[in-house]
Amino acid sequence: MADPxxxxxxxxxxxxxxxxxxxxxxxxxxxxxxxxxxxAGAGTDLIxxxxxxxxxxxxxVEAGWKWYLDRLGASLxxxxxxxxxxxxxx
Length: 90
What we know:
By secondary structure, this protein is an alpha+beta fold. It has one helix and four strands.
């Protein structure tokens, strides 16, 4: 488990938008995450954006977020959590 970090909230327009910066590693780099929710028919669209930190492989970041979203789905539906090995790039 990772150590706790201080997250900076850059924008919060509840319940529709949240923009945060999360420190990454000891190099002083930060991840900028932008989440927007908007009505879509009978449901809601989640629009997720992440600024890539220099030195990270986009394939690793994509795999990680697919894994996290599938874990969210498993939690919401009471199904088995996915195994990271099925997502990890090559």
